[in-house]
Design brief:
two-stranded antiparallel sheet; 6 strands; mainly alpha; two-stranded antiparallel ribbon
């Protein structure tokens, strides 16, 4: 090495030093001092390692740019080696330059690929969105094809039934024709026998008349015998002609019957030709449906495989049976709570069960104070006792409050009435405790209809007349069905049930009427059942839960209200953040519901703009333009009230 390389870690007799060292402020001669040779590293090597370690610690390697900065200490160390080892400087410099050129080339290539990477990500997102849109469109088309297939299958069944009916009618007519033919043959034979007997009697009568006639004795016997012989010959000839005529025309039917049978046969032939044409058309449609069915099966298999893949990769559905041992009441009560509910509804039920347990553990509620945002019946400072009533007791108390509210004049606001009702029921000392207790219960049990509707009215999210009108509608349905039940047995026919629904809800579509009938327990496959028990449809249990029929009536009311408000929004053609004037909203409501009377229209406008009806300007007044509100606010105000369509938008929508 010519005195320029350290022999560490070999055990030799001497130690060499590197001169002209520049990597730090230490002098090279101070770094390389004589040490006894052994396993220890040279000072210069330790110093370079410490320098490299410190430089690396100063760098933040959490970012991409720091990865290149990490090479800088290594470059510096390498340059130090190049400077110190003069003999190998050209070789080490060429190695360093080669690596630097390659790194620069790779860096340029990476920079050139960065836009391509971003473009690839964007293209991937666009392709995913396009695939999702195509899947949604194919799913919608599949549902339409399935619906069309069901309609065509029903049409085929109907045509087959008509064909069977016509075939039975043709066979019946053929049987009647054969019976008539046998009847005519029997009459023909009887007539021949009767004519023979009649001729025999006529001969006997003539013989007797000749024997008894006094003038016969005066005639020539030869002449009489000859006349008798000729007469008998004429009679025989006539009898033969008569028998010939009967033999030739005995089976001939009257012309009137023939023409009638011919007309009947022609009608049946026309019906048969029509049925053949219909059958051929249905057969072709059936072949088309079979092809569609095969393609649908392939798509179904494809979607099924995709579903299995999604199920394999997606999060597994929760095992709701685990809740059986947790919920109070055991498996029986959990099955009763979970019957007919989806996962989202089961989560609500489970939260209510958990919340009910936590609510019963509380002995006191903290008072909310006297702020303006606090409802009047909750304005109290300090702890409030938790009365811990059962759900049945809360529901009974709310029903009593509604009865008292409906019995008196609704002058005071509902929150004030509610607190006054509690004072009258429990006294002024316990009224606040019961107010907090009931409020916490109805806020928790939002799946209970009585509690949720009372909470909505109490907090101003829904007007009282919504609840009142709904109850009146249910009472009207029960009254109409009771009037049809003349025997007072609780039974009416399916036709009467359908008629009552169509009369009470004239604007509902056939699909909605069928939904109500199915919610009431009627199913298309049980169409043969004639009588229908209507009283269980209006039964309400102790916890205030209605039967599916009443629940479906309420759900359809909410759906129709949303559709009605959506029609009004479409007529305005505005965004929710845009402002709408009184004339524009009036025109939009009248266009969406032409049958709306003037008084109801004024009520809707008053509710939307929160202006009393008496202060609304007349139509055409200049003050109308000054009344402006955000469209979102107007629709929210209408959502609170009892808003519903009064007439069909188009005549075709009437049932």
């Amino acid at each position: 090495m010519g005195g320029h390389l350290s022999p560490w870690p070999t055990h030799t007799s001497g130690q060499t030093f590197l001169r002209n060292r520049k990597p730090c402020s230490y002098d090279c001669r101070n770094i390389f001092q004589q040490n006894p040779l052994g396993a220890a590293k040279p000072r210069y090597l330790e110093h370079l390692e410490n320098y490299l370690r410190k430089e690396l610690l100063l760098l933040d390697v959490g970012t991409d740019s720091a990865q290149e900065l990490r090479l800088q200490p290594y470059r510096e160390i390498f340059e130090f080696f190049i400077e110190d080892f003069k003999t190998y400087k050209p070789l080490l410099s060429s190695i360093k330059n080669a690596y630097e050129v390659m790194l620069a080339h790779q860096r340029e290539k990476i920079r050139a690929l960065e836009p391509l990477k971003a473009k690839l990500v964007t293209l991937n997102e666009d392709c995913n969105e396009r695939i999702m849109a195509m899947r949604a469109e194919e799913k919608y088309e599949i549902s339409l094809l399935k619906r069309e297939k069901m309609n065509l299958l029903k049409l085929i069944d109907k045509k087959n039934e008509e064909k069977i009916s016509l075939q039975s009618e043709v066979s019946k007519l053929r049987k009647n024709l054969a019976e008539e033919y046998l009847h005519y043959l029997t009459e023909r034979d009887a007539r021949k026998v009767l004519i023979g007997d009649l001729n025999e009697l006529r001969y006997q009568r003539e013989d007797m008349s000749l024997a008894q006639s006094p003038g016969v004795w005066g005639e020539d016997p030869v002449k009489l015998a000859l006349a008798l012989k000729m007469t008998r010959q004429d009679l025989t000839r006539t009898q033969m002609e008569l028998n010939t005529m009967k033999a030739n025309f005995g089976d001939v039917v009257p012309r009137r019957d023939f023409e009638m049978q011919e007309k009947t046969n022609k009608d049946i032939q026309e019906q048969l030709d029509s049925l053949r044409a219909d059958y051929e058309e249905v057969r072709k449609e059936h072949e088309i449906l079979l092809q569609l069915h095969m393609s649908t099966l392939k798509e179904r298999d494809q979607f099924f495989s995709e579903l299995q893949e999604i199920q394999r990769t997606s999060t597994p559905r929760p095992d709701w049976t685990k809740c059986e041992e947790v919920v109070s009441g055991g498996p029986d009560r959990w099955h009763m709570l979970a019957e007919g509910k989806n996962s989202d509804q089961l989560v609500d039920v489970l939260l209510e069960e958990i919340g009910e347990g936590l609510l019963r553990e509380k002995d006191f509620f903290p008072g909310l104070g006297y702020g303006e945002s606090i409802p009047p019946f909750l304005r109290y400072d300090g702890p409030v006792e938790n009365k811990k009533p059962s759900k049945k007791e809360v529901v009974k108390l709310l029903k009593d409050a509604w009865k008292e509210r409906l019995a008196q004049e609704q002058k005071e606001k509902f929150p004030d009435f509610f607190f006054n009702f509690l004072e009258r029921r429990f006294g002024p000392s316990d009224a606040m405790a019961w107010a907090y207790t009931i409020f916490e219960n109805i806020k928790l049990f939002h799946t209970n209809e009585v509690m949720s509707q009372f909470y909505a009215v109490l907090m101003g999210k829904r007007l009282e007349n919504v609840y009142i009108n709904q109850k009146e509608t249910i009472a009207h349905l029960l009254k109409e069905m009771t009037n049809l039940d003349t025997q007072n047995e609780g039974l009416i026919t399916i036709e009467q049930f359908s008629t009552v629904l169509k009369t009470t809800f004239p604007l509902k579509k056939e699909e909605q009427i069928q939904e109500l009938m199915e919610a009431g327990g009627w199913h298309p496959e049980n169409s043969g059942a004639d009588l229908f028990n209507y009283r269980p449809l209006f039964v309400e249990n102790e916890e205030g839960q209605n039967e599916p029929f009443v629940q479906r009536v309420w759900e359809q009311y909410l759906e129709e209200k949303d559709a009605y408000l959506q029609d009004i929004k479409q007529e305005l053609a505005l965004d929710l953040q845009d402002e709408v004037t009184l004339p524009k909203l009036r025109l939009a409501i009248m266009t969406a519901d032409p049958s709306l009377d003037k008084q109801t229209l004024s009520t809707y406008l008053s509710q939307a703009f929160q202006v009393p009806v008496s202060e609304l300007p007349e139509e055409g007044d200049e003050k109308e333009q000054t009344i402006v509100i955000l469209l979102r606010t107007a629709l929210e105000q209408l959502q609170v009230a009892d808003v519903k369509r009064m007439g069909p938008r188009e005549p075709e929508t009437i049932i």
